[in-house]
Every structure is written in structure tokens, then in C-alpha cells.
């Protein structure tokens, strides 16, 4: 015989029930089966909620009850033709009327005892099993209904009753030996005391009913049919990348379910484990999937870590005090106190100094526990030997589970360094002596991030997810998103990076999608987004709390550069092409770098100098490997280079500047480039990255613009003044041309000092042939003395800047 259990979602409506009946009819063709069913999805919650309302004299209980009634009646009507309905409807109605009487009792007495609650809750399974049984009869399956209460006998703790195994087993054996039908259908979850009072087996207890029957009759297999394709490596609702575990041991399944893998109710495993009956978890909606097989022998070749589960709503109680050292009986008194209050302990840790004991319990029981423990230790607290118990709420427990973990070194190191890298604070740690489980207590808010990060580390080592929050989608931003979209498949396949854009903002609107914004339609998504606000953008990025989050600034705005610190402090990396932060006060630059190190959040700005050219990265590698910078000589302005390469006595200066702006080679305000300020900022950043302390004011700027042009405040006035001073610019050109030299705006850093300005470059100089918007940097170091290290190439333009930002993102991916 096989025992099959169908959960709440599997029997949530007529369509699902039909699917279940198909599965039953197939399975029962060559084997007898016992079918255990849950209440129709969510009914138990509704039944309990209705009872709570009735007991506080809230008349709304009636409408909830009506909803429960409608649901059940609807299933009958959907599955049984009108001609055959009446008897079934009237029996269903009888059950519902009885339920209504119970609610009226609660309402009149304003009372709700555990005993009444259990009776009320039992109606979910009573109704579902009755209706499904009638449908099976109607479909002419050889089936019979059996009330589980006649088989399963329990103690009198009504909501979480303890099963009397020997008498229950005998009842089951007697019944199933006698039974001649191919299919027996029974309600899950419910049982009875020896005195015939209804009890329940705890929430999720239908799994347990099935296991008890399977063990009693020595079934060949226990099948748990649910809404997912097995026991997953982590909760599939939270970790999208989780996958079903094909084969797992009883011990591992028990650990995972104990730590929150709801797919199987923890007590379920014990009865079948003793008889070594295999459990198969299957998906009702994808019966072709193989599911998870649970047996005694773990498959040796499988991974050390089988799964990661978590429990929310945990409180941590800490009992601490110097008076505890060496005095026997402290722990005993503590545990006895919790036992007396029937408080379940989920996790225990004790410092080896015996200075403190930490206990994890359910949030709901925290205040009851505190009162009881403080009372037990009242004397020690009064005499200062022990501190009043400390309660921390809103925590979660994460557990790494795997029977083979004991044979692998370094797993806990890997677990805790992953959590640390993702800025997840660990409140307590517990590792079972058998090493099947390593648990960590963390803040609930971090649970999703932590689970995903650990899952990535232990199961998806190959693929790393990066979550981008992009501020500024103008020229460069748009190119960046286009490149990202185009490269997505390549990155996933070749670099094992899954890069998702979670948030975008321009100065008007912002939009988010925690699952990743579709990069083919991001413009519409953004246009339909909410009003942009830098503060809300940061809040959202923080509250989504995704691992490997990166804020990308593609603006030239000072206000945006002022918020980097908030991101970095929340362990969110910052990538920026905006030079303002790195060229601001040294103190500020230094502070950002310090915070970046402290919070483990990369701060990258390769595109601050030379757009996509690897200038800063090369410099950093030189310095990190112990080289020292003596001199930097560079042409760092793609825009100025473009302007002076194109300017001659055959055109006007203004025309050339306008062309440069049109082609995207200048900042939005071209004066920033032409005044030399942009170049000064760049050499400042290079000097700082070389380890020198320098301010922008220390840089000598030999500007070539007339005072009047420098003083303009709008682009329009600026262009007008360029036109007015055309003769000045022609003169600059002529002086150079007469000497057969070319004009280059050169930045130099030497002996701790920096200067920028226009220079006459002769034809034998490496700068002479610099074309278009190209940049060149010469690094003279300890190692590169006679021949400097050169980096040269296109140093301006939307495409190359976008690809420089892209390169920074990938650098973070490889971190
Ligand atoms: P049923 O009503 O069939 O008993 P449950 O809701 O009790 O189903 O259990 C199935 C659910 O358990 C899944 O839908 C999933 O959300 C949750 N779950 C949590 N952790 C895991 C896990 N590690 N593997 C599979 N499911 C899990
Ligand atoms: N219906 C019960 C519950 O929701 C038992 C079960 O579904 O397993 O807890
Ligand atoms: Mg369940």
C-alpha cells in the first residue's frame, strides 16, 4: 500500500481537485492507496480567524463563515452534476450548520478554549475529505471514506496533541487489514482523545497524519503531494534560483523542516524513519517532475550542503552575569522555566566561559518567557549575580543543512564570510555537535538577502547576481543600458554574472522592479514611474536590501555626489562617472574611500579620467604592487583635444566647440572643459590615487579663455563671447602653427605639484599625433623610468564612457 497526502493548495478548488483525482485514479490502478487530504487551501486560517472574531463579539465573523460556506458549496456544484447534488449539499450544509452553532457558542460566551478551537479547526478537513470522497464515488472509483478520528488517538493537548502510537497503530492495522476497497480517503490533521474529544496535530499536521498511517501499516511509500516540485535547496518563494533536491536523508529533511522548510511538517519524518519507509515529495501541478526522495542513506556523492532554510519571528533571550560561572543548575532552572510555560526552544548557544546563555524562541512567546525567567532568577538578579534577561525581537534563524558537512572543512568560514561581505550582522551562532546543521541568528530584515547570498555561494557558485540602481539616463546612461541589454547573455554564459537593473531614475521620475526592469521597455517603465527624489531612491535601494547592490551615478550633479556616503554605509557599491566627489575637498574624497573599505562596498570611478580607458585601474595596480609615481604627463580632455585637432585658420573656434558639444565630447556645460577645470579635476584625481594629498586650488591652471568668456553664466553668452574673441583664438593657433607645433592641453603632475595648460607640442613628441578625442597618459614611476607606461585611446564620448562604467560593474562582479 502507498499513502498519499494532498495539501491545501492541491485541493484549493474544483479544478485542482480534478487533477488530484486523476493522480489518485492512476496510482490506485495497481496498488491499494490511503489518501489523506488537507482542508481546502487557507480554510484552516479562515476557520480560526472566524472563531477569534466571534469570541470578541465581532459580528463580522458571520460574513467570514458565509465565505467558508460558499467556497465549499461551490466545489460541490462544480464537481457533481445537479441531479446528484442534493444529498451531498444537504450533508455539507449539516456540517456547516453544526459549525455555525459552535461559533454562536463562542459569540454568546465570549470564550474560546483550545478544545473548542481544535473542534472548529477540524471542520476544514472534515468538509474537504467528505466532498472529495463523494466526488470519487461519483467518478466510480473503488473508494471508501474513513474518519481519522476513529484511528488516531492522542493526548488532551487539543491544538498540538501527542499521538498514542501503540493504540493508533493497532487501530490502523485492524482497519486496513479488513478494508477491501482500493482507495481509502481520510481527513488529515484531526484526531481524538480516548474520551472521544476532537484534537488536532498542529498546523501543517496533515503530513503527520499520513506518516502515522504509513508507519502503522508498513506502507511501501509515503507521498506528499504539494504545490512545489520537492524539497528545494531553499524556500523557492524567497530564493528564485533554488532547485529541488533529488535525494536527501531523513536527518537532513528533518533539519531543514525544523528550520522552516514548510514543505514537510517536522514530526512527519519520525514515524516513517523508524520503519525506513521512503518519502516522496511531488508536485500536484507538475506530476511529471521527479520530486524529492527522502530515505535513510544519503547519497555520498552529493554536495556537503543540501539546503538552507530559515525561520522568521524569532526572539533571542540572553541570560548573562558573572554569578553564573561554575554554579551548577543555572541552565537546568532556565530550561525548566521554559518547559513549565510550554515554550518551545528553537536554538541554544552557550559561551564557553559560561558567562551567558542565549536561547532562540518564537517572538509570540517572548514576553511570557521574560516574565517567567526574571521570576525564576529574581534572587540572583536582585543580588546582581545575573542581569535581567535581555530580549531581542524581530530576528530570523538561518540554517545550513547537510549530513556530509562534517567531512568538509571551512564551510562555516564560508558561510560567515558571505554574510559579512553582505553586511549581515550575526547575533548568535549554533552548530550541532553532529555537524548536520550550522545556524546563525540575524535580523529579519536581512533574511532575504542573506538567504540569497548564501544560496549563491553554496549552490550557484557559477552565477553571481548584481543589482543595479541607475541614477541619470541621459546620453551616457542610455548607452550603458543598451550595452547591458546587448551583453546580458554573454555575461551570464562567459562571466557567470547575472546583472539586473532594479531601479532607474532621471531628474523627473524613478521606477523600480525587484525582479529586474525589462531593458527593452525601460523608457516606458521610467516614464510611468513615480516622481523622482534622491532621498526616496536611496530609501528604496536600502529597503530592497538586495545582495551585491550597486548605485550608478551617470549624472554630473553635485547633489547626487553628496549621497554616495549613504549608499556606501549601507554596503551598497557606488560606480560613478561624475568627477565631483573625487575632485572635491581631499577630506571628503578620503572619507568616501575609508567608508568604502569599512563597509566593504566598492567605490569605483574609472570613467572620471579618460572615459573607458583603464587609467585609474592601471595606476591602482602599480601602486598596490609597490611602485611609486614620480611624474604624470597627460592629455586628458577628449573635448579639448577634439577642439584643437579641428580648429584652424579655416574655421572658427565657436563652430568647432559647437560641433564638439553636438557629438557628445563635452560636459553639458562646455565651459567646464574649455576653462581647463575638467582637466584639473582629472589630474587631481590621478595625483590623489597615486597617494598624494592635493586640493583643486593647488593646481596651477593656465587657462587660454579670455576673462570675459570665463565669466559667462549661460551657454548662449558663452558662445557669443567665443565669437567675439575669434581673433584671440586665431592668434593662439597661428603662434603654434608658425613653430610647426600642435596645440595640446596638457596636465602635468611632478614633485607633488600639478599644473594644466595649453602647450605647443613639436612633431617628435608622443602627444603630437593624438587624434580626434583621444587621451594619453604617461606614468613615470620607479619601474618605468626612461620609457613611461602609456595608456592611450578614445577618451570621450557616450559609448566609451558607458563601457567604462560597464567595466567597473564587472570589476565588482569579480570581487
Ligand atoms: P501544503 O499545503 O501542500 O502542505 P505547504 O504550504 O505546507 O503545502 O508547503 C509547501 C510550501 O513550502 C511551498 O509552497 C514553499 O513556499 C514552502 N517552502 C519553504 N521552504 C521550502 C523548501 N526548502 N522547499 C520547498 N518548499 C518550501
Ligand atoms: N489544514 C491544516 C493547516 O492548515 C493542516 C494541513 O494543511 O496540513 O494547518
Ligand atoms: Mg503543509
Blueprint (SSEs and pairs):
Elements: E1 2-6, H1 14-27, E2 33-37, H2 43-55, H3 61-79, H4 82-109, H5 114-138, E3 143-145, E4 153-154, H6 165-178, E5 183-187, E6 190-193, E7 198-200, H7 206-216, E8 221-226, E9 247-249, H8 250-258, H9 269-275, E10 279-283, E11 292-295, E12 307-320, H10 330-340, E13 345-350, E14 356-362, H11 366-376, H12 378-382, E15 390-401, H13 411-421, E16 426-431, E17 437-443, H14 447-459, E18 464-471, H15 475-495, E19 497-505, E20 509-512, H16 522-527, E21 530-531, H17 534-544, E22 549-553, H18 558-561, H19 564-569, E23 573-576, H20 586-598, E24 603-604, H21 615-624, E25 629-635, H22 638-646, H23 653-662, H24 670-674, H25 677-689, E26 700-702, H26 707-710, H27 715-724, H28 726-738, E27 742-750, E28 753-761, E29 774-781, E30 789-794, H29 798-813
Parallel strand pairs: 1-2, 1-8, 2-5, 3-5, 4-6, 8-10, 9-11, 18-19, 18-22, 22-23, 23-24, 26-28
Antiparallel strand pairs: 6-7, 10-11, 12-14, 12-15, 13-14, 15-17, 16-17, 19-20, 20-21, 25-27, 25-29, 27-28, 29-30
Helix pairs in contact: 2-3, 2-4, 2-5, 3-4, 3-5, 4-5, 6-7, 7-9, 10-11, 13-14, 15-29, 22-23
The structure holds adenosine-5'-diphosphate (ADP), aspartic acid (ASP) and magnesium ion.
Adenosine-5'-diphosphate is lined by residues 7-10, 38, 204, 226-228, 231-232, 234-237, 256, 261-263, 307, 309.
In summary, what is this structure?
The chain has 815 residues and is α/β, with parallel strands linked by helices. The protein is 42% helix and 21% strand.
Amino acid at each position: 500500500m502507498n499513502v498519499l497526502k494532498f495539501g491545501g493548495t492541491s485541493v484549493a478548488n474544483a479544478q485542482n481537485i480534478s487533477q488530484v483525482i486523476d493522480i489518485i485514479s492512476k496510482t490506485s490502478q495497481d496498488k491499494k492507496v490511503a489518501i489523506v487530504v488537507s482542508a481546502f487551501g487557507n480554510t484552516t486560517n479562515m476557520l480560526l480567524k472566524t472563531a477569534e472574531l466571534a469570541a470578541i463579539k465581532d459580528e463580522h465573523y458571520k460574513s467570514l463563515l458565509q465565505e467558508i460556506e460558499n467556497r465549499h458549496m461551490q466545489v460541490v456544484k462544480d464537481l457533481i452534476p445537479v441531479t446528484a447534488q442534493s444529498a451531498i449539499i444537504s450533508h455539507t450544509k449539516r456540517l456547516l450548520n453544526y459549525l455555525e452553532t459552535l461559533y454562536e457558542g463562542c459569540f454568546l460566551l465570549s470564550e474560546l478554549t483550545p478544545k473548542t478551537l481544535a473542534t472548529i479547526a477540524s471542520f476544514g478537513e472534515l468538509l474537504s475529505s467528505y466532498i472529495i470522497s463523494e466526488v470519487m464515488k461519483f467518478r466510480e472509483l473503488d473508494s471508501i471514506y474513513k474518519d481519522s478520528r476513529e484511528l488516531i488517538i492522542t493526548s488532551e493537548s487539543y491544538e498540538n496533541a501527542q499521538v498514542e502510537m501503540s493504540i493508533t497503530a493497532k487501530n490502523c492495522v485492524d482497519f486496513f487489514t479488513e478494508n477491501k476497497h482500493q482507495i481509502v480517503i481520510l481527513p488529515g490533521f484531526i484526531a481524538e482523545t480516548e474520551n472521544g474529544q476532537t484534537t488536532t496535530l498542529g498546523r501543517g499536521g496533515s503530513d503527520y497524519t499520513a506518516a502515522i498511517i504509513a508507519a502503522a501499516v508498513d506502507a511501501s511509500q509515503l507521498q506528499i503531494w504539494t504545490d512545489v516540485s520537492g524539497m528545494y535547496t531553499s524556500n523557492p518563494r524567497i530564493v528564485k534560483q533554488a532547485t529541488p533536491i533529488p535525494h536527501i536523508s531523513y536527518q537532513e529533511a528533518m533539519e531543514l523542516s525544523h528550520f522552516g522548510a514548510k514543505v514537510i511538517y517536522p514530526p512527519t519524518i519520525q514515524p516513517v524513519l523508524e520503519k525506513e519507509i521512503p518519502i516522496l515529495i511531488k508536485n500536484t501541478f507538475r506530476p511529471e517532475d521527479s520530486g524529492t526522495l527522502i530515505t535513510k542513506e544519503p547519497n555520498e556523492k552529493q554536495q556537503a550542503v543540501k539546503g538552507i532554510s530559515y525561520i522568521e519571528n524569532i526572539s533571542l533571550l540572553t541570560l548573562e552575569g558573572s554569578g553564573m560561572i561554575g554554579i551548577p543548575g543555572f541552565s537546568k532552572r532556565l530550561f525548566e522555566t521554559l518547559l513549565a510555560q510550554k515554550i518551545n526552544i528553537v536554538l541554544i548557544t552557550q559561551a564557553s566561559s559560561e558567562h551567558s546563555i542565549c536561547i532562540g524562541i518564537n517572538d509570540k512567546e517572548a514576553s511570557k518567557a521574560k516574565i517567567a525567567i526574571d521570576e525564576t532568577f529574581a534572587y540572583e538578579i536582585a543580588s546582581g549575580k545575573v542581569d535581567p534577561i535581555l530580549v531581542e525581537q524581530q530576528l530570523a534563524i538561518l540554517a545550513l543543512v547537510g549530513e556530509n558537512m562534517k567531512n568538509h572543512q571551512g564551510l562555516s568560514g564560508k558561510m560567515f564570510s558571505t554574510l559579512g561581505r553582505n553586511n549581515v550582522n550575526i547575533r548568535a551562532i549554533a552548530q550541532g555537535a553532529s555537524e548536520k546543521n550550522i545556524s546563525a541568528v540575524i535580523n529579519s530584515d536581512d533574511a532575504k538577502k542573506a538567504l540569497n547570498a548564501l544560496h549563491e555561494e553554496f549552490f550557484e557558485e557559477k552565477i553571481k547576481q548584481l543589482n543595479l540602481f541607475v541614477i541619470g539616463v541621459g546620453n551616457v546612461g542610455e548607452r550603458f543600458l543598451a550595452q547591458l541589454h546587448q551583453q546580458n547573455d554573454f555575461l551570464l554564459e562567459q562571466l557567470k554574472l547575472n546583472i539586473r537593473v532594479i531601479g532607474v531614475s532621471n531628474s523627473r521620475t524613478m521606477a523600480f522592479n525587484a525582479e529586474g526592469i525589462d531593458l527593452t521597455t525601460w523608457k516606458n517603465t521610467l516614464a510611468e514611474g513615480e516622481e523622482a527624489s534622491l532621498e526616496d531612491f536611496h530609501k528604496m535601494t536600502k529597503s530592497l536590501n538586495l545582495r551585491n547592490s550597486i548605485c550608478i551615478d551617470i549624472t554630473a550633479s553635485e547633489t547626487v555626489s553628496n549621497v554616495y556616503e549613504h549608499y556606501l554605509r549601507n554596503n551598497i557599491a557606488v560606480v560613478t562617472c561624475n568627477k565631483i566627489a573625487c575632485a572635491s575637498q581631499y577630506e571628503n574624497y578620503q572619507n568616501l574611500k575609508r567608508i568604502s573599505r569599512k563597509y566593504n562596498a566598492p567605490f569605483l570611478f574609472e570613467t572620471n579620467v579618460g572615459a573607458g580607458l583603464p587609467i585609474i585601474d592601471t595606476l591602482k595596480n602599480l601602486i598596490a604592487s609597490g611602485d611609486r609615481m614620480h611624474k604624470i604627463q597627460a592629455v586628458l580632455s577628449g573635448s579639448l583635444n577634439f577642439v584643437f585637432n579641428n580648429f584652424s585658420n579655416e574655421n572658427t573656434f565657436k563652430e568647432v566647440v559647437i560641433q564638439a558639444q553636438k557629438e557628445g565630447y563635452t560636459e553639458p556645460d562646455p565651459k567646464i572643459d574649455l576653462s581647463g577645470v575638467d582637466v584639473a579635476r582629472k589630474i587631481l584625481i590621478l595625483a590623489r590615487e597615486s597617494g598624494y594629498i592635493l586640493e583643486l586650488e593647488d593646481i596651477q591652471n593656465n587657462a587660454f579663455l579670455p576673462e570675459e568668456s570665463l565669466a559667462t553664466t549661460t551657454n548662449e553668452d558663452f558662445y557669443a563671447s567665443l565669437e567675439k574673441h575669434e581673433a584671440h583664438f586665431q592668434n593662439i593657433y597661428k603662434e603654434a602653427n608658425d613653430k610647426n607645433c600642435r596645440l595640446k592641453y596638457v596636465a602635468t603632475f611632478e614633485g607633488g605639484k600639478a599644473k594644466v595648460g595649453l602647450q605647443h607640442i613639436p612633431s617628435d613628441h608622443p602627444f603630437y599625433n593624438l587624434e580626434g578625442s583621444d587621451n594619453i597618459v604617461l606614468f613615470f614611476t620607479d619601474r618605468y623610468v626612461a620609457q613611461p607606461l602609456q595608456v592611450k585611446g578614445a577618451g570621450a564620448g557616450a559609448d566609451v564612457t558607458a563601457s567604462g562604467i560597464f567595466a567597473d560593474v564587472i570589476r565588482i562582479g569579480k570581487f
